[in-house]
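We were asked to recover a plausible sequence for a given structure. The inputs and outputs are reproduced exactly as logged, with field labels preserved.

PROBLEM: sequence recovery
POSITIONS: 122
GIVEN STRUCTURE:
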């Protein structure tokens, strides 16, 4: 959990009328620190990313009904599926955005520290 010695930076992304993937990839790119001149792969950049107006995201009805999130507990019969519309209903659109960005961050020890720098506002 090393932190880079760069200046703290804040990026704000407006999600109004933009697709989920475009917003999420822009946020993931910034969280990794690739927009910074002092980019280092093995350090967490002191960058906060705020995504605003996620309630105004452009989500086609086909995507909301068709996207399925899966997880597996590791036990027999422990395979779970959740559709996007059910997740939005239960946890809100912010959780969908967080899950999408989380899927774009590399799976290593720095992932949790980077995800703590993501702020999603409805």
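RECOVERED SEQUENCE:
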């Amino acid at each position: 959990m090393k932190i880079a010695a760069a200046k703290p930076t804040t990026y704000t992304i407006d999600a109004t009328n933009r697709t989920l993937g475009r917003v999420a990839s822009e946020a993931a790119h910034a969280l990794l620190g690739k927009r910074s001149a002092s980019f280092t792969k093995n350090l967490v950049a002191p960058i906060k990313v705020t995504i605003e107006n996620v309630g105004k995201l452009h989500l086609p009805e086909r995507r909301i009904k068709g996207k399925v999130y899966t997880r597996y507990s590791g036990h027999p019969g422990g395979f779970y599926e959740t559709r996007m519309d059910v997740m939005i209903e239960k946890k809100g659109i912010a959780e969908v955005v967080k899950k999408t960005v989380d899927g774009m961050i590399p799976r290593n020890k720095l992932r949790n520290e980077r995800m703590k720098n993501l702020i999603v506002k409805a």
